[in-house]
Amino acid sequence: MPVVRIQSFGYLHADPPTAHLVIDLRQHFRDPHVSPELRHMTAHDEPVRTTVLNTAGITDLVNATAAAVTAFLSGPSAGQVTVADGCAGGRHRAPVFAMELADRLRRAGLTVELEHRDLDKPVVQR
């Protein structure tokens, strides 16, 4: 079975990586960065994960993205599938989404490589 590669990133750090699917989380989902108590936390902190995963639409988008990955993998010449998901700074929404998608795909029996390009970069000043 081919590998699914998931990479989270922040649009404010660099261009999106090349991927089969690029998911832009900036416009439709509230940014935890706007909450001073969450701003300097990352997706590794439970309050950030809870905030992102409780945002309306996130679970539906994870499920839809997992279905899209499965569709790519079912193609006649299926190889590795790459998903890139981005938010503004790459510390909150994108890595939480990527972790949730990776968990969902692993539970479905797929091999997943997960990378967070910008998670450990400094908070972007806006």
UniProtKB/TrEMBL annotation:
Residue ranges of every copy of the RapZ C-terminal domain listed in the record: 4-119
Molecular function GO labels: ATP binding
PANTHER family documented for this protein: RNASE ADAPTER PROTEIN RAPZ
Full protein name: ATPase
Species this chain originates from: Herbidospora solisilvae
